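#lab-general

N.A. 3:47 PM
ok so I finally got the sequence cleaned up, no stray characters, all 290 residues accounted for. can someone with queue access submit it? mine expired

B.Y. 3:52 PM
send it over

N.A. 3:53 PM
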Amino acid sequence: MAFPVAPPPEGDAPRPRAAEIFLYSYAAIVTVTALTRLDLTRGNWSIALAHALIIMWLWLVTRPGLGPTGRVLREVMPLIIVLAGYGALDVLSGGGQRPAHDSVLLAWENGAFGMQPARDWWRGHTSPFWSTLLHGVYFFYYVILAVPALYFLLRGDWSAFRRLTRNVVCTFCVCFLVFVLYPVAGPYYVFEHPTGLFVDNLPARMVYAALASGSSFGAAFPSSHVAATTATELATFRGSRVLGWVLLVPVILMPIATVYTQMHYAWDAIAGVLVGMVVPWIAGRLEQPA
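B.Y. 4:20 PM
back already:
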C-alpha cells in the first residue's frame, strides 16, 4: 500500500489508545442496542454486524507485529469509522420511531432564557448578513474537521494527528452514545423551518441540502458540531499555532451559528462546548503513563 508520507515507526506491543478504548466501548454498546431494536427496522442487523466488525478490527490493530500498512490504518481508520458512524444513528432510531426528549430541552430553554432562542432569535433579529455568515460557519464544520487532519497527515506529524484523532473520536463517541440512548430531535424537527430572506443565500441553501441528504433524527443534544469543532481546535492549536489561530474564529462562532440558524437549542451548544473540552481532557489523562 503506497502512502505519501512515511508510516509511524514500529514500536513494542501496542497498548490500546484512548480513541480505541472509546470506540471499542461505543461499538460494543451499539452492537447490543441494535440487536434490541430489530423491531424498529431490520437495518439494525447491519448496524450490529458493522459494529461487531469494528470491535474485531480494533482487536487486530492492537496486536504486536503490525507492518507499515497496518500502522497507517491504525492511525487513520478510527477517524474514518467514527465519521461514517453518523449515518447509523438514524437507523438505530428507526428513522424517528424512538421517542425524543425535546420537551426537556424546551423546558430548559424557557427556564434559562425565558424564550426559545433557536426559534425566537432569528425571528426577532432577521439579518441576511448574519444569516449568510452563520450558515456559512455552520457548513464550515466539515472544513474545520478535515483541514487539520489532512495537514498533520501529509506532514507526517503522527503525534499531532494522533492527538487530533483522540480528541475527535472520543468526543464523537460520547455525543453519539447520548444520541442513541437519549435522543433529542432538535429545532430543525420541532419548529417550522425559516423562510424568506433569512434563508435566501447560498450558505443556507448548502446547509439545507446537506441536511436533506444526511440528517439523523435524535442527534441534537449535545451539539456534535460544537463539540467536535471545539475538540478539533484544542488539538490543532497544540500541533500548529498558525492553523489553530486560523480556525479559532469559526470555532468560536460555531455555538452561535447552531442556535441562530435554528439547528440546535442553546443548551445543545452549551453542552457541546463542555463535551468538546472535558472529553479530550479525560482521554488525554487515560494515555498518560501510570
